[in-house]
Design brief:
- By secondary structure, the protein is of the alpha+beta class.
- An eight-stranded antiparallel β-barrel has the order 1-2-3-4-5-6-7-8.
- Strand 5 and strand 6 form a beta hairpin.
- The longest helix is centred in the N-terminal third of the chain and has 24 residues.
- The radius of gyration is 20 Å and the shape is globular.
- It starts with a helix and ends with a strand.
Length: 148
């Protein structure tokens, strides 16, 4: 009887370990994220990242500074020029890569109108998101915090 109980405990433990590894492997950037201003270290906005047909996109859902809620993208090009930043899609065409990294998409910085190649990497069990924007070999990182 003791051997049967040990076997049951070991089987349950093994199943739990494999199931938890599956949970960590499926952490995605999908959700609501608080963006942090690099210069002031203050919360700037909320961006909601959604997934459609395996591709991620992200939209500015809330601007936290009331004085900036009506800001427009004056430095943007094309159809985004002079459009409100609130509600703007700033992340497009991001796809799953290897090892929990998402990339091959783009991110728009509405403060300067520039578009960067994008890589997203969930960290801290999905509580933090490394947002890396590239132009050529140069890049900069931001760290966003999960709201939901």
């Amino acid at each position: 009887m003791k051997k049967l109980n040990k076997l049951a405990v070991l089987s349950t433990l093994a199943a739990t370990i494999f199931a938890s590894q599956g949970v960590f492997a499926t952490i995605t950037p999908v959700g609501l994220w608080k963006t942090i201003d690099e210069d002031t270290n203050q919360a700037k906005s909320y961006v909601r990242i959604t997934q459609t047909n395996g591709t991620l996109s992200g939209k500015v859902e809330t601007i936290l500074n009331p004085a900036k809620q009506n800001d427009i993208c004056s430095k943007c090009d094309d159809e985004l020029k002079d459009q409100p930043i609130l509600g703007m899609t700033i992340i497009t065409d991001v796809k799953a890569q290897d090892d929990g990294v998402w990339g091959d998409g783009e991110i728009l910085d509405p403060t300067n109108g520039k578009t960067y190649t994008l890589q997203l990497t969930p960290q801290d069990e999905g509580k933090k998101l490394e947002v890396r924007g590239y132009i050529g070999f140069f890049y900069r990182n931001q760290y966003w915090l999960r709201v939901e």
